[in-house]
């Protein structure tokens, strides 16, 4: 197996340590963000949200707790790998020091030294190869862990984005709820006003029904009175007609008597009696006409 210079191994180990340190810092930053998000969720910033928003916040908080636990496990695994790398690097440094010491003594008892350290050199070469293989495995695992970390970071950002969208939806729903409550209150006031108007109209309707009933009663009474008056008028007309015929008969008789009596005194007497009878007939006729006029005026 071809050996690489120990200095090259040490430089690569330093690069690996730097990459590992950067990865630990990124994990720390992500853990801090998750902790901050958990504090924000725990302080009750979303306490005014609806049960749906609280459930979403609880789900996000549980997801962040799982992520924190997974990241803590990854940190523990990474710390174990780093300790292994440091242990192997320390062994490499010790072997490099031993090799330098052997190189300083290369000219003295070369064969004996070769026999003495050949097994150790083979073991060291094998150990270096295994260390390189383990380091490659660790690099692969670190890359895999970085990919996982990026995935967790992306999931965390997605959760934040979904949480922000949910918060906006909740705010919009609160606005819609406020508008619906305002509309409901307006409708309730309108319904109350309509109910009051209906009650007022019912009372007015009852009053009008009462007045209509009284008016019907009055109309019926007036109809009866009118029929009675019409009967009276008819009777009076018949009486007037009868009186008129009687008076006409009396006038004719008086006129005939006046024609037969030739004395001036008798003619004057019958003339006065005739004038008096005509006045009486006219007065009675005027009273009847006046009575009929008032009756017609009442029923117009």
TrEMBL record:
InterPro entries: IF_rod_dom (IPR039008). Residues 64-105, 135-239 form a coiled coil. One of its GO terms (biological process) is heterochromatin formation. It comes from the Eukaryota. GO terms for cellular component: intermediate filament; nuclear lamina. PANTHER family: INTERMEDIATE FILAMENT PROTEIN IFA-1, LAMIN DM0-RELATED. This is IF rod domain-containing protein. It comes from Thelazia callipaeda (Oriental eyeworm). The lineage of its organism: Eukaryota, Metazoa, Ecdysozoa, Nematoda, Chromadorea.
